[in-house]
Structures are given as C-alpha cells and as structure tokens.
C-alpha cells in the first residue's frame, strides 16, 4: 500500500446496499486477512457479483480500506451509545472495561487487520488516530466527573489512567487471536479493575464491581 491516496475511495455507488456489502467485507477480512480477501470471497459472502463490487469500489484495496474504516467507526460509535446509560462514573468505567474485555475473537481479528494496514497507509493511520481519541473520551470523561463529584482521588492524571485502562483491554488482541489466553479463565479482569480503582484512589471505598479481597493467610 502507498502512503499517498489523495484520489482514492471517492466512489459511493450502491446506496443503502453498500453498507451491507461493507459489513460482509469486514467479516471476510476477519476470517481471511487483508492479503487473503478477494472480490470473489466477498461475492460469495454477500451474494453480490464481482462486477458489481468492482463498480461499487473500483479496486480491492479501496473496498478493504473502506470496510475497515466503517467497521471500526461503528464499533466506537456503539461504545459511545452504550455509556449513555450510566450516570455513575465508576459503574461506567467498569462497564467499559467489561465491554472491551468481552470483545469476541472475530472483532479482534478485524482490529488486527485494521491496525496492521494502518501502519502502512496514511489515510487509515489518520483514521486510527481519530478513533483512538474517540474511544478514550468516555474514560477520561468518567474519571473527571468522578473526581469533580469527590468519588475519586486520582493518583495520576485522567489521560494517563484512561490510557492504561485502554492498554489493558487492547493488550488482549494477540493473546486472544493466537489462542494463548482466555481472559474469562483467569483473574485478568479482576486485576484490571483493582488497578483502575487504585489509580483513581477509589480502592479504599470498595466500589461496586471490585473483585473480592484475597483471604488473609
């Protein structure tokens, strides 16, 4: 892939059907990988002829990049909608961690392909940067709201705490994709939550969602 794509991804044929096709592309990408996804594979998955796909997107690369942009944008938007149901900052943080740790393997595979492609594509790299900021916003917002309300006494700045919380979630990508780790079979989640509570100065208050303290020996 080239880093200069000023004239790329300008086609918008297909109307409402285009979005559905792109969703199929994302599924195929997660299964076959960026290099292994062909027009023919997407045609088989979507029921849309190869010639029609070429009319929609022009090139295979443009189709794949647009699918990755759509899938990742939808995922971040869904997370923003999810957190609207929470008024309590701590409950929101725990829910976001749980949501991230519950990410399914197909989604991790799609994200792996996205970040790998973004490392070599200027447009995807810029898109990834925007998504990263949007993904962290609800974490930082919850930390600041909790601090203002007196529920948190942070030991570190809000942005750094949010960054570590996100890193603990995203760090599961390769272990899960490679089948090296099943977080639900370990205390991974409890450690992440306990670490977050400590960073926020909320550990002494034993807020809801905290793992139980180990027994005294």
Tally of strands = 0
CATH topology: Tetracycline Repressor, domain 2
Task: Describe the main β-sheet briefly.
Answer: none
The portion of residues assigned to helices is 55-70%
Number of helices: 10
The coarse overall form would be: elongated
Total tally of structural domains: 1
Structural class: mainly alpha
What is the level 1 CATH name? Mainly Alpha
The Rg value, from CA coordinates, equals: 20 Å
Rounded mean pLDDT is 90
Oligomer type: single chain
From the N-terminal CA to the C-terminal CA, the straight-line distance is: 58 Å
What pattern of helices and strands is seen along the backbone?
A: HHHHHHHHHH
CATH superfamily descriptor: Tetracycline Repressor, domain 2
The CATH architecture would be: Orthogonal Bundle
Verbal overview:
Helices cover 65% and strands 0% of the residues. It is an all-alpha fold. It has a single domain (16-205), classed as Orthogonal Bundle (Tetracycline Repressor, domain 2), CATH 1.10.357.
Summary of the model, kept short:
With 217 residues, the protein is an all-alpha fold. It contains ten helices and no strands.
């Amino acid at each position: 892939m080239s880093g200069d794509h000023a004239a790329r991804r300008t086609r918008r044929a297909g109307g409402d059907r285009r979005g559905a096709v792109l969703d199929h592309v994302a599924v195929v990408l997660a299964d076959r990988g960026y290099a292994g996804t062909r027009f023919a594979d997407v045609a088989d998955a979507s029921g849309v002829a190869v010639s029609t796909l070429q009319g929609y997107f022009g090139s295979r690369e443009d189709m794949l990049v647009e699918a990755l942009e759509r899938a990742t944008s939808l995922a971040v938007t869904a997370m923003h909608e999810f957190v609207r149901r929470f008024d309590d900052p701590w409950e929101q943080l725990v829910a976001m961690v749980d949501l991230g740790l519950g990410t399914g393997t197909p989604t991790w595979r799609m994200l792996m392909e996205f970040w790998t492609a973004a490392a070599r594509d200027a447009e995807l790299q810029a898109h990834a940067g925007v998504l990263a900021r949007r993904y962290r916003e609800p974490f930082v917002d919850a930390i600041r709201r909790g601090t203002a309300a007196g529920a948190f006494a942070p030991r570190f700045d809000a942005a750094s705490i949010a960054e570590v919380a996100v890193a603990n979630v995203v760090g599961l990508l390769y272990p899960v994709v490679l089948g090296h780790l099943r977080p639900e079979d370990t205390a991974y989640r409890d450690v992440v939550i306990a670490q977050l509570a400590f960073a926020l100065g909320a550990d002494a208050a034993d807020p809801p969602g905290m793992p139980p303290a180990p027994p005294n020996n």
